[in-house]
Amino acid sequence: MLVIGERINGMFKDVKNAIKTQNKGVIQDLARRELAAGANVLDVNVGPASAVPADTMKWLVETIQEAVDARLAIDSPKPAVVEAGLKVCKNKAIINSTDGNPEKLKALMPLAAEYKAGIIGLAMDEKGIPSEVQGRTEIGFKILAAAMEVGLEPTDVHLDPVVLPVKFSQDQFPATLETVRQFTMLSDPAPRIVVGLSNVSQGCVDREIVNRIYLIMLMTCGVNEAIMDPFDKHLMDAMITTELLLNKQIYCDSYIEAYMKSQARC
Ligand code: THG
């Protein structure tokens, strides 16, 4: 599993305040701790409140890179903000994200090619999220084809079935799992499959149990990357144990420790 740490996001109060006061220490401490907890990549999102999101993205990326050497996922719905982040990334970046909207594809695929970045593709477009599996799979295929056209490899494409909060969209869940299964069959080699895991538990009272169980279900269907909270040790242990039980890790008595030691960061 590729763990993409979710914590450097202006949606969180500490990050929002750090951005406002240009407090590098808070951001750098989160970056170091996410990597130490097992994140392989750090998601970077300025949050909904920033007045100058492109400048803020640049500042966040530079601030993080002063402290750690990590791959970053540049998370913004605005192509100009994504490019501001890509410009200053030292390592291979992940664009987070495009969707199937032709305008978005036209803006973002050339950026992925120019900056040799991976790209996350959400299974939605300008009309929203299709309610049927077929519609979502078709958007995934369209994004994959657009990536091939600019010369990306299937493994640079990270398809995202779009996880919604269970509190509001419970009826969507069987289709989401089936969309993941369909994504695994779109190409050979298959695209990567990513989710924003914590979306599922937004508004829930006991969020952790919902996140932990859903991650296991998604992995069983083919998800191999998640934007998630690496500070939830039980979530990380559930992820590692699921890898073991899916025969993706060799068993030893200290398999969790062995997994953590084996993780390359870049
Ligand atoms: N797919 C892709 N990228 C994504 C998402 C996705 N990026 C953003 C998001 N979804 C994944 N990251 C988060 C980060 C935080 C939360 C949920 C998803 C979260 N935050 C608290 C909340 O809203 O309750 C913030 C409050 C707090 O604790 O301070 O839940 O789906 N490609």
What does this structure look like?
With 266 residues, the chain is an alpha/beta fold. It has one domain: Dihydropteroate synthase-like (TIM Barrel), CATH 3.20.20. 48% of the residues lie in helices and 14% in strands. An eight-stranded parallel β-barrel has the order 1-2-3-4-5-6-7-8, surrounded by five helices. β5, α6 and β6 form a beta-alpha-beta unit. It starts with a strand and ends with a helix. The protein binds (6S)-5,6,7,8-tetrahydrofolate (THG).
CATH topology: TIM Barrel
Helix amount, in percent?
40-55%
DSSP summary, beta strand count: 8
Unreliable stretches: none
What molecules are bound to this protein? (6S)-5,6,7,8-tetrahydrofolate
CATH class group: Alpha Beta
How many whole angstroms does the radius of gyration measure? 18 Å
| Strand and helix order | EHHEHEHEHEHEHHEHEHH
CATH superfamily: Dihydropteroate synthase-like
Strand order of the largest sheet: 1-2-3-4-5-6-7-8
User: So how many helices?
Assistant: 11
What sort of overall outline do the alpha carbons produce when their principal axes are compared?
Answer: globular
Quote the distance from N terminus to C terminus.
14 Å
Mind summarizing the main beta sheet?
A: 8 strands, parallel, barrel
Number of self-contained structural domains? 1
- Rounded mean pLDDT score: 97
Measured by DSSP, the beta-strand proportion falls in 5-15%
Would you tell me the structural class of the helices and strands? alpha/beta
* Quaternary status: single chain
Q: Examine the secondary-structure arrangement and name the CATH architecture.
A: Alpha-Beta Barrel
